[in-house]
């Protein structure tokens, strides 16, 4: 009975707790945080202290002294390090509140569609221990569909492919529920890993995660461009695996496309598998309306073209795909009663 009163004094939040980035939406204010999901920890004997979170911590990856470790506490869309995730949530919540509020927030937090009950419980407990009064969970593909502007509450088929940092969620949504879905642990991190492995295998050179990510953004594609105009080759620096000394190579877009081919094929097969399980009436809706791509990986060049050419259904990238999940969770936060059946208590 006190929730409406407490709501006047608290700041309600919606969080996309992603493997790569954490985004936070504040009720009636919009998106206020968009930072990497990275925490830098200083170790002194048996004690641990958080020294940086977010972008500052990400800039430390691969560059810290022995007593400081930069950790990504989320892996494959779920919590890999409970204590560090809790510390990261506390940091972002305190940053938003600016320590002015003494009543704890309510929170909607997104989770991959395929996580287990144990993993859901871990997310909920991490949020509650970070100082949240009430927690709801929302499945990421549903949030992404809402954020992409799809009419999820109508009796029609909507297909969303949400490509995050740790997981790719493919789902068909209708009447506020997921009719069928496939969760694939092939997403942004696996793309980076594929590039690292390609460079190691074909150029005998070791590169780091940040370099692989830069290569992905600058050269990454999964379908040859129709105009045959490729991005300019990129100079890549790393360590020679034979001599152990620094080395530089020139990497081209066709090479990166070759490196990403297996990951792209996995996403394509997940979309096909989801369509095969979709009832015919809803499949007809999707054939007319198309497939919507969301998440940070949706911007990978040629992905929509590959789906369109291989499956024969229109495919589009959502506006601001990286923000789709947090925007959708934010829309639910603004109308909790209207979206109540979508939320997981």
Overview of the molecule:
- Helices cover 37% and strands 28% of the residues.
- The protein is flat and about 60 Å long.
- The chain folds into 4 domains: 3-36 and 75-143 and 325-342, 2-Layer Sandwich (Nucleotidyltransferase, domain 5); 38-71, no CATH class; 151-186 and 260-319, ATPase, nucleotide binding domain (Nucleotidyltransferase, domain 5); 188-258, Actin, Chain A, domain 4, CATH 3.90.640.
- With 345 residues, the protein is an alpha+beta fold.
- It has a 5-stranded mixed sheet with strand order 3-2-1-9-10, with helices on both faces.
- Residues 1-9 have low confidence and may be disordered.
Supply database-style keywords.
single chain, 345 residues, alpha+beta, Nucleotidyltransferase, domain 5, 4 domains, 5-stranded mixed beta sheet, 18 strands, 37% helix, flat, disordered N terminus
In short, what is this structure?
The protein is an alpha+beta fold. 37% of the residues lie in helices and 28% in strands.
